[in-house]
Specification:
The chain is of the alpha/beta class. The protein starts with 7 loop residues before the first strand and ends in a 5-residue tail after the last helix. β12 and β13 form a beta hairpin. The protein is globular, with a radius of gyration of 21 Å. α7 packs parallel to α9, α8 packs antiparallel against α9 and α13 packs parallel to α14. The protein has an 8-stranded parallel beta barrel, surrounded by 5 helices. Strands 6-8-9 form a 3-stranded mixed sheet, covered by helices on one side. The protein is built from 15 helices and 13 strands. The structure holds beta-D-fucopyranose. The site of beta-D-fucopyranose has 12 residues, from loops.
Length: 458
């Protein structure tokens, strides 16, 4: 089962989850520093202060990537390293770190894929303007993007403006489970719009400063949605969840509109629609060079409080909906259902209903209760089988005409899994946090072999 010539096999990480060195070389605080240092927010009070200490172990980690034979590395830039207060000139030491990273990748023939925003908003922007609830932040983001682009566009071929605006808006401003810990549906809707506007303004700014051959896109987390039964209440709940999780992002970015059925649902409950100004949607729907897709699971949805069996997830309570575990599906250590077929379904839907721009799977992977065995090895069979089945699903999408150009496993390293702290391990490389030793898991050798072969057997 081989993948197209030049398929970009890679691995992904994000700044706050791996770098550590939270106060070094002029880095300012981000909303995640504040949030994780506030008791009760993160499992066991874990923070990203040290994380994988990647900031100090850059060379070792680059060598690790070279050993695995990955062709691409998706990382994010910490905005507060570049602009400690989210505005003003670039901090040279902050830029230097990413220059060294990018140079180190190129020396090893690994393509850099850079994400500008993976959730670490400078705290000052939250304090002064209310973060993404304000248009001011979209404008600041475009300035920050220009600074990074000027410094690195010569050596970075792939640029991603935002990682998962749904999570930033709804986990951060709607549900309060992520930084900045706000709990307001109106704020989550405003944040959605200003994130998308920030993407648009950054895209415009980067495009206007040239950079031939640079490709710029955005990464969304998307999940196909299925109703738990044919009961009308469940079907309606599933439609609302699809509206919120998928169409609220795909519609403005591609056709250039917000899903009216979803906005009506909010209006009926007295919640203001997003603060759209004239011309915003034209900018937001400006063509991207590619779409990044993060896929973890499908959502099986029923109306809240109904039906048999326990609810599996409460992410959509504000929609009168909850997720359930589909019969027969296994779960990962996060409790997320394993449904590889959802990836094929999602990729085909994007092509049929939205766009034919090239797609990269910019994240896919699973948490496993990994441990180092007495031989010093980490035998993560569940992860191998998860990755194998999802790569097969990606291949099936290619066979159905999807222009899929690459796949980044989440994650290169075990790391700070946001509200779950260090309790959830997603890496293909184990990190012993006490000693910072890296131990490639069995899945790492398996993945290296897939890359070497350019596909899967059978
Ligand atoms: C995604 C995030 C990533 C990681 C994985 C498990 O939502 O983009 O940082 O936490 O989930």
């Amino acid at each position: 089962m081989s993948f197209p010539e030049g398929f970009l096999w890679g691995a992904a990480t994000a700044a706050y989850q791996i770098e550590g060195a939270a106060t070094e070389d002029g880095r300012g605080p981000s909303i995640w520093d504040t949030f994780s240092h506030t008791p009760g927010n993160v499992y066991r009070g874990d923070t990203g202060d040290i994380a994988c200490d990647h900031y100090h172990r850059l060379e070792e980690d680059l060598d690790l990537m070279a050993d695995l034979g990955i062709k691409a590395y998706r990382f994010s830039v910490a905005w507060p390293r570049i602009q400690p207060e989210g505005m003003g000139p670039a901090n040279p030491k902050g830029l230097d770190f990413y220059r060294r990273l990018v140079a180190g990748l190129r020396e090893r023939s690994i393509e850099p894929m850079l994400t500008l925003y993976h959730w670490d908003l400078p705290q000052t922007l939250q304090d002064r303007y209310g973060g993404w609830t304000s248009r001011e932040t979209s404008e600041r983001f475009a300035e920050y993007a220009s600074l990074v682009y000027e410094a690195l566009s010569g050596s970075v071929p792939y640029w991603i403006t935002l990682n998962e605006p749904w999570v930033s808006a709804w986990m951060g401003y709607g549900l309060g489970r992520h930084a900045p810990g706000r709990k307001s549906t109106a704020e989550a809707l405003a944040a959605t719009h200003h994130l998308l506007l920030g993407h648009a303004l950054a895209l415009e700014a980067m495009r206007s400063s040239g950079g031939e051959g640079r490709r710029i896109g955005i990464t969304l987390n998307l999940s196909p949605v299925r109703a738990a039964s044919q009961h009308p209440a469940d079907l309606e709940a599933a439609r609302r969840v699809d509206g919120n999780a998928n169409r609220l992002y795909l519609d403005p970015l591609f056709p250039g509109s917000y899903p009216e059925d979803l906005l009506d649902f909010y209006r009926e409950r007295g919640i203001e629609p997003p603060p759209v100004r004239e011309g915003d949607l034209d900018k937001i729907s400006a063509p991207v060079d590619f779409l990044g897709v993060n896929y973890y699971m499908r959502h099986t949805v029923r109306a809240s409080g109904g039906g048999a069996g326990p609810a599996a997830g409460t992410r959509f309570g504000y929609l009168g909906a909850e997720t359930v575990l589909p019969e027969g599906a296994g779960t990962t250590a996060m409790g997320w259902p394993v449904e590889p077929g959802g990836l094929t379904e999602l990729l085909v839907r994007i092509k049929e209903e939205y766009t034919e721009v090239p797609i990269f799977v910019t994240e896919n992977g699973c948490a496993v209760h990994d441990y180092v065995d007495p031989e010093g090895e980490v035998n993560d069979r569940e992860r191998i089988s998860f990755l194998d089945s999802h790569l097969r699903a990606a291949h099936a999408a290619i066979e159905r005409g999807v222009d899929l150009r690459g796949y980044m496993v989440w994650s290169l390293l075990d790391n700070f899994e946001w509200a779950e702290g260090y309790s959830k391990r997603f890496g293909i490389v184990y990190v012993d946090y006490g000693t910072q030793r890296r131990i490639p898991k069995d899945s790492a050798s398996w993945y290296a072999e897939v890359i070497r072969r350019g596909g899967l057997e059978g």
